[in-house]
């Protein structure tokens, strides 16, 4: 039995210099249980300090060097046994603090003073003793005492330790040494209170540390200790180097702020870009005004010199002589005559043999389309948007080769809006406010849901057994043969090891004389401050580690809090991590099956009316599933769109002379034939590329038919309307009539189709797989569409003409109508309207000027807006409006307080085994202040200066390795008994079988890497994945990233940081020239494109514009002016499209780029037909030629392009997919409307001012006479 004796008051006679208060060990403290060290207590002994002999002195010098006064001169109040016990006790703290030698020394300093100082009695006052029997003698053993310390000493020691980090977690070491208060609320007093609390498992007795400010009164005889304290930026008393920047802010080098971002471009107080655009507009306007003045004056002087006959004819106009015909005129006419003659013969041949033509066309299409048997539809976003040779893709492949692919995430974010919160007055932590979501009943409900999900199982035919979560889960601590409890599941119940019993545990606890009940809330508060603790500081004695053995950091378990106030979190987070397998692996099917069952369970749980949670959820497969679902659901929308277009074509192509002949004059079969031609061209294109192994995508299935339909319908309208308007000549057969009409319009069709196909083929130079494959499919489809129009559609029109000539009804071929066909060709409604009203009004002098001014203003305004278009594509837009993933992304942005993890990966070619190599990587004491881990740390430390988007600094295995090697940390170990005595002991072995490895574990800067490093790398239960000789990685976390712009900037900043690290590490001797450090996380694959999409988009569009100019020039006989005006109009359409994108909130991204490339192709249809019609017109003046082109060709373009596209586009507004609504409805509507107004409003006016001169300057009475005259000139 033990007799307790409190010590009352302070006796000044017992507190004198050179005297001890206690000496020697008096056994085990009976009041301490479950301690991590042996709780040895000293004997009460008021006596003088002892002069130390050599052995005793050397041990003191080793453990407490700050007390060393020299051999033969050093006195102390501790025995050799006490020194050994003190050394063992301090080794636990050194394991955490040794990274900063001055901190470790300052921590030990006070305990050395209270245990061994020769002036111990001046600092220590015993407050409680017990009677013990040792060797038959009864002694007083000290179980509690007061230690008086100057606040100057305490504050300085605390400052030297407050920023020391634990590399494996990135957290502060002091968080594990301040008990209830962790790092955030830790103060010097609380720090020492924890050290003196025997209930923490580390202190052998109770110590009441009294921190005394300078000058404050103290009891008589007491002198508060105020020894020298080296700062963390100073060398220790033993000569160890100062701490590193990561552990000591005072050691951080000066980080100059980055050059401030350039100020907004301004001219005076006006936006500089706006001023430039206004200047361009004013300059163009001034040029136009000058041009008008010159033109007006020229016309004035010419009109004064005109001589007219009595009939009003101009006699001063000279007839064109053969010598006056320019080379351009000759080339143009030669080209048109050659192409017209060629297509006329071809058309006559096809129309003469329509059935043979259709059969041959069908055979060709079938041969190509058979390749569809081998088509591969790419749905993997990585394959769609990241090129195999792109940097991000290569980095992903490198990461996956040397490390495992990123695990698959399946997650729920749960809230309980309206659920009442409560205050909790904790015995240990004081008053805490708990939000409504942090209540026991909701945590139990979450645990119930978690357990249900963990119990998912299903039968696998591939494995011929039942599959459970353990077969596919990510199990970091037991990857080879995991059990269900080894699976990484992060959630709040993991703080209680997923145990209902632990959650319900309660116990009465006494602190400072107050007894209260402690429960799950006390444990939770403790764990969110010390997630790495294996035992909390309450009498519950529960661990904070998860059931699978790893820590659960609070930012992964709860969300929606401020300033780390986790108890006020608004959301609970439940995350299941699964292994990521290749898509062709059997286990990939199992993972997808498990994830589908996970989604089913969660969806069912969400519909349960008894559920108290409002939550959002996702599986790794969810994004791809939702995109595929909406694509399938929107197929009917596309079908309706195509049906509307078909109905329009069938109705609009008809020439309706009377109600009785309406079924004869309709063109339903012709319209159907045109649609089939488009469909067959798309099938042939897809089949061909399937033959050669180029995969397709959903974008191709949605966009290419739409594009080819727009192009094909235009050609169909031009051909059919021209045929209907042209009267068959006397003696001319139907087939010859069709051939002659084709000879007239086919060169224009060739011009557009050739421009578009070359445009798309050049667009395949894009590095983005989706853009490249789209361009290839579209190019070949346009080519096939033109070829089938020149063959199959000519045959269809020939057969339909036969039917119409025989007065047979459309569709009902057996039914004939007696009403004869009118002898005069039908011009329909649009051509007369254009000729009589639209063209004359448009080309009035005032109207022309207004049009030029308005369109120049639109162009300059769009240039300004183009520089403000948002670049990126938020992943929410890829989802349908009713997708559950939209709610998940909303919750993710609202409640997640940390972003995606990112790795800084080192490639092979760096020698980690040298001192210089290690210094260039580590962040411990003595390391290069600009090492790899230090540079990753600086953006975190100086977040207000360096915008790096890093939230948590990199954890470093190198620093763990150094700590493992340090003999003072008790982590370098050998077997001391058993068969393996003397051999390396892995970290998983229990402590009692280990001893400190001294000789084989010198200071880490001089270790034998060949012997020690393999032990470290292979000494855990994990397979060795990180081999420094090949590749290594260092993990950090991004800040929460809300949109694609932040994701892109985070990637840019991470790459800049990695490039800086690469440059410095290449300077280390022995580093390979191709060594590299690069950042990697899964999101980089999708956002890398936005780093270069602007210049790449400009390149692609520029490349597409070139053939529109070149082909136009060549097919118009080297007519450069017409080619330039054609190009200018297409450029204006494209620029104006981007300007409207800015106004309508359409972001610029790869999908937009595809549509802009498409816009160039559709613009060719709006522009090139009209340009060619104007160039070949023989009217005497520019205005009359523009009127003729607008009326004749403009009407066909309006009916064939605009009115074909618009009905189909409007239908797309009802699609569920936001991607379709924004990038197909909005953007295609913009493209079509802008193309329409530029082609039918601006271009005629532009040509009337700046178009090429007519081939004749003489006024002729008829088109036929003019044409004959020109042919005569050419033949001459």
TrEMBL record:
Alphabetically ordered keywords of this record: Cholesterol metabolism, Disulfide bond, Glycoprotein, Lipid metabolism, Membrane, Signal, Steroid metabolism, Sterol metabolism, Transmembrane, Transmembrane helix, Transport
- PROSITE patterns the record matches: SSD
Q: Determine if Disulfide bond is one of this entry's keywords.
A: yes
Localization, UniProt: Endomembrane system
Catalyses: cholesterol(in) = cholesterol(out)
What Pfam families is this protein classified in?
NPC1_MLD, NPC1_N, Sterol-sensing
Q: Name one GO cellular component term.
A: plasma membrane
The answer on whether this UniProt entry bears the keyword Protein biosynthesis reads no
Provide the topology term for how it sits in the membrane: Multi-pass membrane protein
Which positions, given as ranges, span the membrane? 272-294, 355-375, 635-656, 668-692, 698-721, 741-763, 775-799, 846-868, 1098-1118, 1124-1146, 1195-1215, 1227-1250
Gene Ontology terms describing biological process = cholesterol homeostasis; cholesterol metabolic process; cholesterol transport; intestinal cholesterol absorption
**UniProt similarity note:** Belongs to the patched family.
* NCBIfam families in UniProt: 2A060601
Instruction: Report the protein name in the record.
Output: NPC1 like intracellular cholesterol transporter 1
Organism of derivation: Scleropages formosus (Asian bonytongue)
């Amino acid at each position: 039995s033990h007799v307790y004796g409190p010590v009352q008051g302070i006796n000044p006679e017992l507190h004198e210099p050179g005297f001890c208060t206690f000496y020697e060990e008096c056994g085990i403290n009976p009041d301490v249980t479950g301690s991590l060290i042996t709780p040895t207590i000293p004997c009460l002994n008021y006596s003088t300090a002892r002069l130390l002999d050599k052995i005793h002195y050397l041990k003191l010098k080793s453990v407490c060097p700050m007390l060393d006064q020299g051999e033969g001169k050093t006195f102390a109040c501790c025995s050799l046994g006490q020194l050994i016990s003190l050394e063992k006790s301090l080794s636990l703290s050194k394991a955490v603090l040794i990274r900063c030698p001055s901190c470790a020394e300052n921590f030990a300093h006070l305990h050395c003073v209270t245990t061994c100082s020769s002036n111990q009695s001046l600092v220590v006052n015993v407050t409680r003793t017990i009677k013990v029997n040792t060797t038959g003698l009864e002694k007083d053993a000290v179980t509690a005492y007061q230690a008086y310390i100057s606040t100057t000493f305490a504050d300085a020691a605390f400052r030297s330790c407050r920023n020391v980090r634990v590399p494996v977690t990135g957290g502060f070491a002091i968080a594990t040494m301040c008990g209830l208060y962790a790092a955030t609320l830790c103060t010097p007093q609380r720090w020492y209170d924890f050290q003196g609390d025997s209930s923490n498992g580390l202190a052998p007795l109770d110590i009441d540390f009294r921190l005394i400010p300078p000058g404050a009164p103290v009891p008589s005889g007491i002198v508060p200790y105020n020894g020298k304290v080296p700062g963390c930026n100073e060398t220790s008393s033993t000569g160890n180097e100062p701490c590193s920047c990561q552990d000591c802010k005072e050691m951080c080098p000066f980080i100059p702020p980055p050059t401030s971002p350039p100020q907004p471009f301004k001219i005076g107080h006006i936006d500089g870009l706006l001023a430039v655009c206004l200047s361009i507009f004013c300059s163009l306007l001034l040029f136009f005004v000058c041009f008008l003045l010159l033109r007006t004056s020229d016309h004035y002087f010419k009109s004064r010199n005109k001589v007219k006959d009595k009939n009003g004819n101009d006699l001063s106009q000279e007839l064109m002589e053969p010598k006056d015909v320019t080379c351009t005129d000759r080339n143009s006419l030669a080209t048109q005559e050659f192409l017209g003659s060629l297509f006329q013969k071809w058309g006559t041949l096809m129309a003469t043999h329509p059935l043979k033509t259709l059969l041959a066309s069908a055979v060709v299409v079938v041969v190509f389309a058979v390749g569809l048997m081998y088509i591969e539809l790419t749905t993997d976003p990585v394959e769609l948007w990241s090129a195999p040779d792109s940097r991000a893709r290569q980095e992903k492949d490198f990461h996956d080769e040397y490390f495992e692919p990123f695990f698959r995430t399946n997650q729920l974010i749960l809230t309980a809006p309206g659920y009442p919160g409560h205050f909790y007055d904790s015995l240990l932590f004081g008053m805490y406010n708990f939000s409504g979501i942090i209540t026991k009943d909701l945590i139990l409900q979450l645990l119930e849901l978690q357990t249900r999900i963990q119990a998912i199982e299903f039968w696998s035919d591939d494995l011929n057994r039942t599959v459970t979560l353990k077969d596919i889960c990510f199990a970091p601590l037991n990857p080879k043969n995991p059990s269900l409890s080894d699976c990484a599941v992060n959630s709040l119940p993991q703080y209680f090891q997923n145990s209902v019993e632990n959650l319900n545990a309660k116990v009465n606890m006494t602190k400072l004389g107050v007894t209260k009940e402690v429960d799950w809330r006390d444990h939770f508060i403790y764990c969110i401050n010390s997630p790495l603790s294996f035992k909390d500081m309450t009498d519950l004695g529960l661990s904070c580690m998860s059931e699978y053995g790893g820590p659960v950091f609070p930012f992964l378990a709860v969300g929606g809090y401020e300033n780390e106030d986790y108890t006020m979190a608004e959301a609970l987070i439940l995350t299941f991590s699964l292994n990521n397998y290749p898509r062709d692996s059997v286990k990939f099917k199992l993972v997808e099956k498990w994830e589908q069952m996970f989604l089913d369970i969660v969806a069912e749980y969400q519909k349960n009316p008894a559920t108290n949670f409002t939550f959002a959820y996702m599986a790794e497969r969810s994004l791809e599933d939702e995109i595929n679902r909406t694509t399938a659901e929107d197929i009917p929308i596309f079908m309706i769109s195509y049906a509307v277009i078909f109905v329009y074509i069938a109705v609009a192509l008809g020439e309706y002379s009377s109600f009785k002949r309406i079924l004869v004059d309709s063109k339903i079969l012709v319209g159907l034939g045109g649609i089939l031609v488009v469909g067959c061209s798309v099938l042939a294109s897809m089949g061909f590329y399937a033959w050669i192994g180029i995969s397709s995508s959903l974008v191709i299935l949605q966009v290419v038919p739409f594009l080819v339909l727009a192009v094909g319908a235009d050609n169909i309208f031009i051909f059919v309307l021209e045929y209907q308007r042209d009267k068959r000549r006397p003696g001319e057969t139907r087939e010859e009539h069709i051939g002659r009409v084709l000879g007239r319009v086919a060169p224009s069709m060739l011009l557009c189709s050739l421009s578009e196909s070359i445009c798309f083929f050049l667009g395949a130079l894009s590095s983005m797989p989706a853009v490249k494959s789209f361009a290839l499919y579209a190019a070949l489809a346009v080519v096939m569409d033109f070829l089938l129009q020149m063959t199959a559609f000519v045959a269809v029109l020939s057969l339909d003409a036969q039917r119409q000539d025989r007065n047979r009804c459309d569709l009902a071929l057996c039914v004939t109508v007696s009403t004869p066909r009118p002898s005069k060709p039908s011009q329909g409604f649009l051509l007369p309207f254009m000729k009589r009203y639209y063209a004359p009004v448009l080309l009035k002098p005032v109207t022309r000027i207004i049009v030029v001014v308005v369109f120049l203003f639109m162009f300059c305004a769009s240039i300004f807006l183009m520089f403000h278009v948002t670049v990126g594509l938020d992943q929410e837009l890829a989802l349908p409006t009713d997708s559950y993933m939209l709610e998940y992304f909303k919750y993710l942005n609202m409640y997640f307080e940390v972003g995606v993890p990112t790795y800084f990966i080192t490639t092979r070619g760096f020698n980690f085994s040298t001192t210089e190599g290690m210094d260039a990587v580590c962040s411990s004491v003595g390391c290069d202040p600009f090492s790899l881990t230090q540079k990753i740390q600086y953006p975190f430390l100086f977040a207000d200066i360096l915008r790096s988007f890093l939230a948590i600094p990199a954890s470093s295995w190198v620093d763990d390795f150094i700590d493992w090697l340090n003999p003072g940390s008790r982590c370098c170990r050998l077997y001391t008994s058993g068969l393996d005595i003397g051999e390396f002991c892995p970290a998983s072995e229990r402590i009692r079988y280990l001893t400190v490895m001294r000789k084989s574990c010198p200071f880490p800067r001089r270790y034998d890497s060949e012997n020690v490093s393999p032990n470290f790398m292979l000494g855990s239960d994990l397979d060795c994945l990180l081999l420094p000789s090949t590749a290594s990685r260092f993990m950090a976390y991004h800040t929460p990233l809300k949109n694609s712009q932040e994701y892109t900037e985070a990637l840019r900043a991470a790459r800049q940081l990695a490039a800086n690290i690469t440059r410095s590490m290449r300077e280390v001797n022995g580093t390979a020239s191709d060594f590299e450090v690069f950042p990697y996380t899964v999101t980089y694959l999708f956002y890398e494109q936005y780093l270069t999409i602007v210049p790449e988009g400009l390149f692609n569009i520029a490349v597409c514009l070139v053939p529109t100019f070149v082909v136009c020039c060549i097919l118009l006989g080297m007519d450069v002016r017409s080619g330039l005006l054609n190009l200018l109009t297409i450029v204006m359409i494209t620029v104006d499209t981007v300007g409207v994108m800015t106004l309508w909130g359409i972001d610029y991204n790869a999908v937009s780029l595809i549509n802009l490339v498409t816009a160039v192709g559709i613009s060719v249809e709006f522009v090139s037909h009209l340009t060619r019609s104007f160039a070949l017109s023989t009217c005497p003046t520019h205005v009359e030629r523009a009127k003729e082109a607008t009326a004749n060709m403009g009407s066909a373009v309006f009916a064939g392009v605009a009115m074909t596209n618009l009905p189909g586009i409007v239908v797309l507004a009802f699609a569920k997919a936001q991607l379709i609504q924004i990038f197909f409805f909005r953007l295609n509507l913009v493209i079509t409307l802008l193309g329409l107004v530029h082609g039918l409003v601006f271009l005629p006016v532009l040509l009337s001012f700046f178009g090429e001169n007519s081939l004749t300057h003489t006024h002729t009475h008829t088109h036929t006479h003019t044409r004959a005259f020109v042919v005569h000139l050419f033949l001459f």
